[in-house]
Amino acid sequence: MDPGHQLHHPYPVQSIDTGGGDRFPQWSIQETRDFLAVRAELDPTFMETKRNKLLWEVISTRMKEKGYSRSPEQCKCKWKNLVTRYKGCETTEGEVMRQQFPFYNELQTIFAARMQRMLWQEAEGGGGATTSKKKAVAPQFSSDEEDENEESEGEKVGAKKKRKIKAGNATSGNSSIVKGMREIMEEFMKQQMQMEMQWLKAYEAREEERRVKEMEWRQTMEALENERIMMERRWREREEQRKMREEQRAEKRDALITALLNKLRREEM
């Protein structure tokens, strides 16, 4: 293992006794997130095959490439525990859920993508493709349940019997799980619609505020223009009055000069 990859473990790592004498380190938060990323990438393949032993070996190899030493059995056990905790968080409040189970969003993304693929398969199967539709609308956690039934080669017969027993109850189980996933998708769509409505309301509020400010600006400009017109009108009136006074003074001056000239002429005569 590359020593540089040890940076993936930012939290103290302790050892856990599995009961058989073997000890392996706890999963750190970053290691679990990397594991979920690899598991999400291979989830479509898990849903297409019934024998997942090789897939868990692939995941173990991918984890080794990332710097983690995990066996296929440890990866499968970790996935089973995460799914169990995810199921237990479905009825828990959001903030409490995030505090108790920090990987809820990652698992929700995986199962939402799985459900979307199943719905697409159901839609593409058409009305007459009953067999393909049943395969498409499989339980959300079906691949995980099959992982639990995959044991050693010596237990193949028992595992087949268990799958046959589960197949008898598949119809009712499938419908309830699909219904639950549809409710989740509907709730998700409602949240998206609510977010869109909130965005539209905020946009309309900003637009209304902009219109009000624009109206106020126009009213202010109109008031300034009216004031300018009134001031110009008063200036013109004062200018006309000044001209009239000057004309009157000029007339008086001319009249006085004419009177003086006439007087001088009479005196000379």
Describe this structure in words.
There is one protein chain. This protein is mostly helical and 269 residues long. The protein has helices spanning 29-48, 53-65, 72-88, 94-100, 104-125, 130-136, 142-149, 156-168, 170-268, and strands at 15-17, 23-25. A two-stranded antiparallel ribbon has the order 1-2. A hairpin with a 5-residue loop joins strand 1 (15-17) and strand 2.
- Can you write the helix and strand succession as a string? EEHHHHHHHHH
Q: What summary fits the major beta sheet? A: 2 strands, antiparallel
Kindly report the spatial arrangement of strands forming the biggest sheet: 1-2
Helix content: over 70%
Amount of beta strand: under 5%
Rg from Cα: 44 Å
Tally of individual helices: 9
Q: Which consecutive residue ranges, at least 5 long each, have pLDDT under 50?
A: 1-22, 127-139
Shape summary = rod-shaped
The average pLDDT score comes to: 78
Structural class: mainly alpha
User: First CA to last CA: what distance?
Assistant: 141 Å
Number of strands: 2
